[in-house]
Amino acid sequence: AVFRPSKARKEWRIGLEMMRRGVPAPLPVVFAVERRRGIPVAGYHVSIELAGADAFDALFARLACDSERREALRRLGRFVRQGHEKGFFHDDCSAQHVFVETSGESVESWGGMHFIDVDNCGFCRATEWRIVKNAFQILRSFPGRGISSDEQTIFLEALFGRPLGECELERLRRRIRAWAEWKRRRKAVLKWIGLKSKSGPQP
Question: How much is the pTM?
């Protein structure tokens, strides 16, 4: 990290660009880097607290009504899609990295959503492969048995912004499974060689 921007600096810069583009996230205030003999040893990033907000997965787990679960997934899909439409892509998009303003337990009490943990995120053109990557990351992030096939369909249709036929759904699910298989193989290879890779399966 001697020659690369610190995580704190990256999150601050990305947060400013998100604010400029109208992508909801904690508002960045300041960052600082602690150095010893010119070498950075720690970074600090301060942003405005999301008061009254909680992680999507925690709120979703408390929903007992099927209709509320479906509405929550629609909202999540629309929120992520709106980020894509503004050129923002979360590098680790999960149900834990979307925070929801809320004043109660029901979906009706939910307010705005915000992305968090954005230091490795970026701004680029929306492509199906990038959207599928975010879909895979979110779907795998639900604890336990995750969500049902019907709930996945509701989320994917909201994410892509249109009804999806059976053939298209199956094609997208194959691409999502391809990401899952790549992650499994990558983990095994990295364990063996001790390296990191930022690439992914090819379109």
Answer: 0.86
